[in-house]
Amino acid sequence: MKLYIKNMVCSRCKTVVRQELEALGHEVLTVELGEVTLKKPATEAQLESISERLLTHDFELLSNKKQQLIELVKTAIVELVHQQNDGLRRQKHSDYLAEKVNRDYRYLSTLFTEVEGITIEQFIINQKTERVKELLVYDELSLSQIADLLNYSSLAYLSTQFKSVTGMTPSQFKQLRDKQRKSLDNL
């Protein structure tokens, strides 16, 4: 049985979800971002218990098919932006999402905007902005290296996009060391 879970964004999330499901007596076969496979189907009462337990960690069990699909898109975008796989990052976003979710990109784009109230492109920009903030706080890479890592066409484009989202340039953010980052599940 597959369960779809909202707000899973990292390996710690996968660990917590696995532990909670096992604590409830379920045999977990796989745990991926946003998706869990149980060995046996869960009853309605068990699903309610799972839902309540996951909510204590700010995870949400998804039952609506549209929500499940949107969560798969979000998970794919998080992987795309936050993983260091150069080939993956250089792939066109629309092609990557259509392949990863196995749906037509136009359909995904329309559904995403309908459900989330923002476009997929804006969600990607938000993710990239948070990733830039993270990398600036770590202070291990130059701004040019960050632009290259996140597949920006130029440093100027990264700066323009960053400023349009945050109201400040990357250099200003770095100087402030404000660290007002949003957690991935709040984007």
UniProtKB/TrEMBL annotation:
Keyword terms of this UniProt record: DNA-binding, Transcription, Transcription regulation
Keyword DNA-binding assigned: yes
SMART domains per UniProt: HTH_ARAC
InterPro entries in the cross-refs: Homeodomain-like_sf, HTH_AraC
The UniProt record lists the keyword Transcription regulation: yes
Database matches in Pfam families: HTH_18
Domain annotation HTH araC/xylS-type: ranges: 78-176
Top-rank taxon, per record: Bacteria
Gene3D superfamilies according to UniProt: Homeodomain-like
PANTHER family: ARAC-FAMILY TRANSCRIPTIONAL REGULATOR, HTH-TYPE TRANSCRIPTIONAL REGULATOR EXSA
Name used for this protein in its record: AraC family transcriptional regulator
